[in-house]
Amino acid sequence: MEYHYNNEYFAADDNGYLLDHNTWSEGLAQHIAECEEITLTDAHWQIIYFVRSFYMEYDTTPAIRALVNALKAEFGPEVGNSRHLQRLLPQGPAKLASKLAGLPKPAKCL
């Protein structure tokens, strides 16, 4: 699979996760969101940037439990809770946040 955005092609696996996280950009994230039928808000961007930062620090994408706990520690319980994440990313918060952030699928997600 690949995404065609801004006259370029970006390689992705069969599930739509970018193969090279270094090719990610905000515009490409917006394009991926459109493909997933999501309109990104500031709340989405907060999660996307957090997941990218998590990946850069720990060299892994967080599964849902780790994501909730890390968000709670960083932003408090209003952001760091599974209900909030499920409302933002109903197709699977950890998986979709990682996809929008241009990162690999979380290892512990089905």
TrEMBL record:
Enzyme Commission designation: 2.8.1.-
GO BP, sorted A to Z: tRNA wobble position uridine thiolation
Intracellular or extracellular location(s): Cytoplasm
Function, in words: Part of a sulfur-relay system.
Broad class of enzyme this protein falls into: transferase
Any single Gene Ontology cellular-component annotation: cytoplasm
Matching SUPFAM superfamilies: DsrC, the gamma subunit of dissimilatory sulfite reductase
Protein name from the UniProt record: Sulfurtransferase
